[in-house]
Structure formats: C-alpha cells, structure tokens
Design brief:
Helix content: 10-25%
Shape: globular
CATH topology: Immunoglobulin-like
Distance between the termini: 25 Å
Strand content: 35-45%
Structural class: alpha+beta
Order of helices and strands: HEEEEEEEHEEEH
Radius of gyration: 14 Å
Mean pLDDT: 76
Oligomer: single chain
CATH class: Mainly Beta
C-alpha cells in the first residue's frame, strides 16, 4: 500500500523531459520526489503511511534486503537495511531518520549506495522548496518510532 501511495507522489507532478530532472513536493501525498533520467533516477520520501520512508526505484541485486546509504557531497551516511518489494511499484524501502533530512538539506550533491552499487550523482538544486512541503506535511512523523 505504501508503495502505491509513493507512486502517487511521483505521478502527481506533470511529466517533464527525461533530461530535465527536478525535485517535487506534494503536501497531499505527504512527501517529496525526485524525477530524473538514468539508473536510480526515481526516489521519493513520504510519511503518508507512517514514519518517514525512502523509496528507491531499484532492487537489491537479487536479494530481499540490502544496506542503503546516502552519499552526500561524497560522504556516506548509512540509513539502514532496505527491503525490496516486488509489486506494481517495485523498489527498495528504508526508514529515513529526521537527522538525514537536515544533512540532505545542506548537501549540494546526492548519490545512493544500494548494496554495493552507487548511483550517479544528482544535484540538490531545487530541493529546499520540496523539503519545506515535506516538513509541513509530516510534522512528528518525520522521526521513526522506537520499537524498544
């Protein structure tokens, strides 16, 4: 269900040419998304179904789970273990801590490390507006709840 909601984030914005990547905020879907060209181009952050979750349009290289990290301006920031879900919107889901939002907001260049694969770098130009929408929509849901 969560993946379908995240698909709404990606589908909610008007289509753009594949060579014109951009960041999009969507208050109705409580999230933000990046739509670009190339491998690992689709990603979304959303709290619509609960705690803030990152969805990546990729797989775990044949495994059910894989380590996921942001690479911000060349510096890795591990997020945890992502879970590959194969359905209508196949992709890797991983909880996204609020501290990562702050670091993402300061970064100029973003990559993802999924398992041993590293995505091409994308610019964070235009991300600030989308993050404002995400923060306003998510409020307390930005931080995953402890299971202890």
């Amino acid at each position: 269900m969560r993946r379908l909601l995240l698909l709404g984030v990606l589908a909610a914005a008007p289509a753009m040419a594949a060579d014109t990547p951009r960041w999009m905020g969507n208050g109705d879907k409580a999230g933000l998304a990046y739509d670009g060209a190339g491998e690992f181009s689709g990603m979304a952050l959303s709290c619509e179904a609960g705690p803030l979750t990152l969805w990546l349009e990729t797989d775990c290289g044949g495994d059910d789970t894989c380590p996921v990290a942001l690479v911000l301006d060349g510096r890795p920031m591990p997020l945890g273990v992502g879970r590959y879900v194969a359905d209508g919107m196949s992709g890797v889901l991983v909880p996204f801590p609020a501290a990562a939002l702050d670091r993402l907001g300061r970064a100029r260049r973003l990559q993802f490390r999924i398992g041993s694969a590293v995505s091409p770098a994308i610019t964070t130009e235009g991300l600030a507006g989308a993050m404002g929408t995400l923060r306003a929509a998510c409020g307390d849901a930005q931080q995953p709840k402890s299971t202890r």
